[in-house]
Fold this protein.
Amino acid sequence: MNEEKKQEFSFEKALEQLERIVLNMESKNLSLDEMMKSYEEGKKLSDFCTKKLGEFEKKIEILVKETAEGPVWAEFKPQEK
């Protein structure tokens, strides 16, 4: 999955595609090459979803802190890999 494709993916679309890859790998007799290609694509999607979840978690932590302690003036910046 190249950077441009990652940019246009939402978390939900990436997760859907990851689920399709897993089902395909579990239900079909794939060649070793096909299995490796599917695994590599699934790993990239999994990494993308994990990164997005981490970003969402940080945003939620900021919001919870704001609610508990009053306004917090912090700028959220996504983590770079």
